[in-house]
Amino acid sequence: MTTTYSFPLLTLEETDSTNRYLTQLCDREHVAEYTTVCADYQTAGKGQRGNTWESERGKNLMFSFVLYPSFLAAPQQFLLSQLIALAVKEELERQAGGFSIKWPNDIYWEEKKICGLLIENELSAGGIGRSIAGIGVNINQEVFRSDAPNPVSLKQITGREYDRGEILAGIMRRVKDYYEALQLAEADACAAVAADIAGRYANALFRREGWHLYEDREGRFEAKLLRVERDGRFVLQDRHGQERAYLFKEVAYVL
Q: Which sign does the torsion angle of CA 231, 228, 147, 145 carry?
């Protein structure tokens, strides 16, 4: 069965990075919202903290898409991260249980990483002029050879082979549903939609209950998760009762 896509799709056999390819395309010409670039293979896929994304040719989903969320103020940009992470997690949950969102936006199955997400926002006049989201999801790969500590694929979880196009279409449909709910809502309703997304995100968080090990610039410590602020700040409480708030890359889970 041929998958039908409700968004403009460019497919590539190989590129260095779908984010870079789409960014350069957007810089050269007008590109419609939701335009998606999907590659069978990336030579330099980018991830959080400057990491690369290992992916066997033709086995996984590696794609980027563009949004123009000018209706969101710059301080609201974490909403995009939340809704995109939720879209991926919820689509994967159609196949198996045990998925969660590892702050800020990796997708985990139990204690293993199945998806990485990188969002690059371009701010203009206090708003978000352009947002390019790059996503790598391990779908059908069975052997991982890099030194990444804990990768897993959907096929390893369920033992089944998947149509990557169907999963891509499902993720983008969910992104569009969340995004348009925000975009089309009146001011008061928009706040309610944003609160709903934040609540779903909070309930989906990896290790959201109990005490766990973390590491910051001063070393390892044990803490429990209190909340994630609207700006994405990650708030923990340590064993001494002290609240610790972190921005991206200031703290890491000890896995």
A: negative
